[in-house]
Every structure is written in C-alpha cells, then in structure tokens.
Amino acid sequence: MAATILQGKEVAQSIRAELANEVAELNKQGIVPGLTVVIVGDDPASHSYVRGKAKGCEEVGISSEIIMKDADITEEELLIIIQQLNENPNVNGILVQLPLPAHISEHAVIEAIAPEKDVDGFHPISIGNMVLGNETMLPCTPHGIIELIKRTGTSMAGKHAVVIGRSNIVGKPVSLLLQQENATVTMCHSRTQNLEDYTQKADILVVATGRAHMIGKEHVKPGAVVIDVGVNRIETGKLVGDVKFDEVKEVASFLTPVPGGVGPMTITMLLKNTVVAAKKQAKQ
Ligand code: GUN
C-alpha cells in the first residue's frame, strides 16, 4: 500500500496560523516578538534558508532583522555583535546561521548567545536541559520531526526508532527526543556496518545523512514511518532527500517529501521558540 505523504508544509501552515493569533494577542499587551538572524559570508544555500526564516516571521507578525557580515569578519567582532543583541530588549531571539567560516569558533559564538534568547536550542545550557528533560528551547529540526510524527497519530511509545546520522543539529537531539517519547532508539551513522540489519527493524526511521538517495525500499520495514531530513541538490539542479522517495513510498506507511516535509516544520519551530522567548522575557 502506498504511503500517506506527510505534508510538513500543511502542518507548518496550521501551526503558523495559531502562532499568528498568539502574536496578535501579545501585540494587544504591547509585546512584539523580535528575532535577529546573523549570517556571515555569501553561501547561497544559507542565504536562502535565512530568507525563509524572515518570510516566516513576517507571516506570523514577528519583527525580524537580518545582520549580514562579510566572511572576513573576525570572531571578536562577531562576539561584540552578539553581546549587543543580548543587551537589546527588542531582540527576543538570536540565531547565528551555521556553518560559520573556519576561522570563527562556532562553539564560542553559540556560547556567547544569552540562553534565554537561544531560539535555535544550540547553547550548551539548552542542550543540557534537553538531555535532562527540563523545560527548555528545543532545537528546531528535531522538534519539528517529533511534531510531524505525532500528527501521523502513531504512538512512539515502545516503538523501535532508528536514526541515521549523529550530527549535533539533528541526529543526536532527535534520538533524545524520541527516547523521551518512550521509543526504543538505535543510532546509526557513516561507520555503521550492515545498515539494513538495523533499518529493516525500524518502526520509525529518521534519515539525516546528507547523502542523496542513500535509503531505498530494501532498507525499510513495510508500514514504517519514514522521515527524510536530507536536502541535497543533485546535478540536474533538483532538490532531493536522503531517501528514494518513489520506491520508499510503496512500502512506508508515512513518508515526508523533499522539499515540503521537514524543512517548513524547522522554520515553524523557530517561530514558536521566538514567541515563547518573547513571552518569558516580558515576564522578567
Ligand atoms: N544551518 C543549517 N541548519 C541550521 C539551523 O537549524 N540553525 C542554524 N543556526 N544554522 C543552521
């Protein structure tokens, strides 16, 4: 039976509509949530992501600013900008688009962001709280993935979830969140041997490898929920996922498309974190 396609775009739209109402209510109290995105260098993919974030802000009524800096900015100069944003009461959320040029320490920059403004959920304090299961700003892509799985009506409790990829942005955090939903989680990565032995046993398969079309129907258990986090541009210029969509949709019960699956959810979770941050900061 062919899979139901999990249209992240539609789910994201409905969450954005709820957020727009929430922002309108905040406006009545004189609160305008504000997000500042800092982007360094001229990587076209990063600029395209940042434009998507600004457009999302506009849609729900969040005030947004993009600070663009040349790739030769020093780490010290960037840290000064972060400090100014930390001190600016009109800025509720700060996001520094990654990757940064090699001469700048991503770790130092992320650590400089005030944890209460860390809408990416990348600060060590945010990550530590997530590991402990404390209330905190969750990283956007993993959070979006969990929301998408919930919308399938599939209970994660007791299910076998297999995550391929161990990045700090997706693989590691999503494995923790799946565990907190009471799934039994297996982590696979580029060094895993006999990958199919694991993936064929997955009720939920999250693929975040950054390798176009690496997962085919031979990897997938019939009826599995398959979440494709990959965004790869192939020679033809087309954007494709890490999963062979056409063949996996014949065996999975649910499958996310690329584009239009996980991507729109990521931005929506960022908008949600910004609204939550604005509300918390208004109470201080
Ligand atoms: N680069 C790719 N994904 C992300 C993300 O979620 N946040 C930031 N800051 N940079 C990214």
TrEMBL record:
It comes from the Bacteria. SUPFAM superfamilies: Aminoacid dehydrogenase-like, N-terminal domain (SSF53223), NAD(P)-binding Rossmann-fold domains (SSF51735). Residues 6-120 form the Tetrahydrofolate dehydrogenase/cyclohydrolase catalytic domain. GO terms for cellular component: cytosol. Belongs to the tetrahydrofolate dehydrogenase/cyclohydrolase family. Catalyzes the oxidation of 5,10-methylenetetrahydrofolate to 5,10-methenyltetrahydrofolate and then the hydrolysis of 5,10-methenyltetrahydrofolate to 10-formyltetrahydrofolate. This is Bifunctional protein FolD. It comes from Brevibacillus fortis.
